[in-house]
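User: Structure with uridine-5'-diphosphate-xylopyranose, C-alpha cells only please.
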Amino acid sequence: MNICVIGAGYVGLVTGACLAEVGHKVTCCDIDQTKLNSLEKGRIPFFEPDLEELVIKNLRKKNISFSSNLVQSIENAVLILIAVGTPSSDNGTADISKVEEVAREIGSLLSSYKVIAIKSTVPVGTCAKIEDLIKTNLKSNCQFDVISNPEFLREGSAISDMFNADRIIIGSESSWAANIAKEVYLPFGRPILLTKRESAELIKYASNSFLATKISFINEMADFCEKVDCDIEDVAAGMGMDSRIGGRFLKAGIGFGGSCFPKDLKALLKAGEQIGCGFNIINSALAVNSAQKMLPIKKLKNILGTLENKLISLWGLSFKPNTDDIREAPALDIIEELLKEGARIIAYDPIAMTKVKNIYPDRVVFAKDCYESAVNSQGIIIITEWDEFRNIDFNRIKQSMKMPVIIDGRNLLDRHRLKNMGFLYSGIGRGTML
Ligand code: UDX
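Assistant:
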C-alpha cells in the first residue's frame, strides 16, 4: 500500500521504516530539507538502535523515500499518517498547532479519498477537530476519514516495539477507514483493537499515565524500604510474580523522564482540570517523581555533609540507556541542584554528552570514560543504567577516587561486592545501609 508519513521525526521515521520493511511503499515528508537530504543518504539525525540499517535496507529496496513534495506524496497515498510533534505548551496542555497546520495543508491538497491517521499524541477530541479543519480547507469535493492510531514506541527499542507491539489501536468512526488501517498493519501479525476515536486518543494518555504511576508507586515503596530495612528489588520481584500486577515498570530508580511520560501526564492533568476532573493519582505520580530525582543528592549530603567544592562524578546523562535523548532527563535536574549546592561536576555518558555540553559548556566537565570521570572525585552518581557501567574495574575506580562513594540511582551494581571492596554504596530502596 502507498503510505505518506508526515513528519520525519522519531515516531514518523520509525513507523515509516517498519511499514516499509513489511512491504509497503512509504514516503516520509518533512519541511526540513537538510534532514531529508541526509535521510536520503541513509543518515539518521538521532540515535536509535537498528533504525539506520532498516532505512538503508528499504531505501535500496525502494520501499522508503523522503520528500518535501507533499502534493505528490499525498496524491499517491491511500493512508496519510500524521506524526508531527505535540510538545507541552506553557500551561502544560498539548500544543497541537503543528497537527493543525498539517491538517490545513492536507485539506487544501486532497483530490481523492484518503484515510488520515493521527499518530501524534493528541488530546481527546483532536481527531474530530482535525476532521473539521480539513473540511474547512477542502478545495475539492472529495471524501476522507480521520482516524486515531496512537504509537507506543519506547526510545531505544522502538523497532522491536513496533514488530512486537502488544496491541495496535485503531480508533475510527468509519469501518471502511478502519479496514484500510487494519490491512496496513496486518503483516505485523499483532493484536488489533478497534475503538471509537476518542477512546483511542485516551488509551495513549491513560497507558502512559498508568506506567508512570507504576514507577512512582515502586519509588515510594522504595523510600519505605529504606526506612524499614527491606529490599525493593525483592519486593518488586515478588509483586511482579502476581500476573495481575506484572513485573514490568516496577524498577525503582531516580524517576522517569523522557519526551513522553512527563509531557503526557501534565497534558492529561490539564485536560482533566478543564472539565473538573482532579486526577489525584496522576498528580501524585508527578509529585513523587519530582522528589525522586533529588534523592541521590540527599544521599550524597548524608554521607559527605556539604557538597560545596566537592567533585561529583555523574555516570549517564540520557533519560534512559540506548538513546542520546536528554529531554526531561533526571540528569539535568541533578546537575542543576549540584551546581546550586556549589559542587563541581564531571560527567560521562556513552552518547549523550554532546547534547548536555550544549547546555553546560563551562559549568560541567566531560570525561572520556568512567575511569577519567572518577579521578579525585568524592562521589559517583549512577544516573542511567548503561550496560558498560556493569563491567567496570571498580578496584581501579576506588584507587583513583578521593572518597569511595557510589550512589547507584538505578540499582545497577552488585552492592555486596562493592561494600566488600570498601565503597560507601547506596542504592535505591535497598534497606538501611551504608
Ligand atoms: C514511553 C512509553 O513506554 C511508550 O509506550 C510511549 O509511546 C513513549 O513513552 P519512553 O519514554 O521511550 O517510552 O521510555 P520508557 O522505557 O517507557 O521509560 C520512561 C522512563 O521511565 C525512563 O526515564 C525510565 O528510566 C523510567 N523507568 C521505566 C523507570 O524508572 N522504571 C521502570 O521500571 C521503567
